[in-house]
Design brief:
The chain has helices spanning 2-12, 16-38. By secondary structure, it is mainly alpha-helical. This is Tryptophan synthase subunit alpha.
């Protein structure tokens, strides 16, 4: 819920570039976590 509200806040302020960067970082973290679990 915290991440969602942060995204909404960025969108509301027109910070789409920052939002995309945040989403990119989250995707990287998820991939890294997935790889760590497989090992």
């Amino acid at each position: 819920a915290i991440v969602g509200s942060a995204c909404v806040d960025l969108i509301a302020r027109g910070r789409i570039d920052e939002l995309e960067a945040l989403v990119g970082e989250m995707k990287k973290a998820v991939k890294a976590a997935g790889r760590a679990r497989l090992q």
